[in-house]
Design brief:
180 residues, two-stranded antiparallel sheet, 6 helices, 43% helix
Length: 180
């Protein structure tokens, strides 16, 4: 049976294999870290300096099985993957690597949480918990503002040793921390 329509030759595929495509090579001198990623690293670095100065030691009262370690870390109460509280200074405290690891990888241990609730209360813990469940991440311009605010907080911290910065991420981004 013959077709009653005509198919032009250019519409008929003669190849059985797809046409090869050249691999895209990365340009020389281009960083593999995005500028957004670099901003996050910069903000974390300044935040770490603020937290280390503010706390001065591992905040967890109950040492790990083999005692506190000498490696100082800025540990998050709620994971740093939670963008809504990643840079909340209430959510970050100095811990030794032993306590931070125990907090992160030992389900059922509540040393850090117990310390936090004992020090700041259930209301503050609940506030951070609720905020951590809010979905969202910071845009690059917000990270730039956060870095600028962190620099101001750090400068004020270095001016007076009695300044102990505990601010929410929202207070930092809005600049409302400076009126407290």
């Amino acid at each position: 049976m013959e077709a009653d329509y005509f198919i032009p030759a250019e519409f008929i595929l003669l190849r059985t294999k797809p046409k090869p495509v050249k691999a895209i090579k990365p340009k020389k001198g281009v960083s593999k870290v995005s500028s957004h990623g670099a901003l996050i690293k910069r903000a974390h670095s300044i935040m770490r300096d603020i937290v280390m100065e503010r706390d001065g030691r591992c905040v967890v009262d109950v040492p790990p099985l083999h005692g506190h370690t000498s490696t100082r870390q800025a540990g998050h109460l709620f994971a740093s993957t939670k963008g809504s509280v990643r840079f909340d200074l209430w959510n970050v405290h100095e811990q030794c690597s032993g306590c931070n690891k125990r907090h992160s990888y030992a389900p059922g241990t509540h040393y850090y949480i117990d310390w936090f609730v004992g020090r700041f209360g259930k209301e503050e813990y609940h506030r951070i918990f609720m905020e951590s469940n809010r979905v969202g991440s910071l845009k690059s311009y917000e990270l730039e503002e956060l870095i600028a605010q962190f620099k101001l907080i750090r400068a004020r911290q270095l001016e007076g040793k009695d300044f102990r910065p505990y601010f929410t991420q929202t207070e930092i981004l809005s600049g409302a921390w400076s009126t407290k």
